[in-house]
Amino acid sequence: MNWVIANKDWLFSGAAVALPLSVIGWFFFNRKNKQVQKGGDNSTNIQVGGSLNIGNKKNDE
Q1: HSE (side-chain half, CA atoms, 13 Å) at 13
Q2: Are 14 and 20 in contact (CB under 8 A)?
Q3: Residue 45: which residues within 8 A CB-CB, separation 6 or more?
Q4: What is the DSSP string of 32-60?
């Protein structure tokens, strides 16, 4: 307990920086990764978050 009282400025100044940075980081990264997919009747929908390669790569060249 004495250590917390002696180091309260150092301890809480770090929390005052870390908390807003974590909230800002969560806000930007959470919005970036949203994907929306809409499809009609009798449709086949494929949703990929990265790269999609269809077929054999040797035959494509």
Answers
A1: 4
A2: no
A3: 37, 39
A4: HT-------TT------SS----S-HHHH
Amino acid in position 44: T
Question: Residue 33 carries which DSSP code?
Answer: T
φ and ψ of 39, to 5 deg? -145, 150
Between 11 and 34, name the one with better pLDDT.
11
pTM for the full predicted model: 0.38
- In this predicted structure, the answer to whether residue 18 has a pLDDT above a threshold of 80 is yes
Rounded Cα–Cα distance for residues 60 and 47 (Å): 22
When pLDDT is averaged across residues 22-43 and rounded to a whole number, the result is: 80
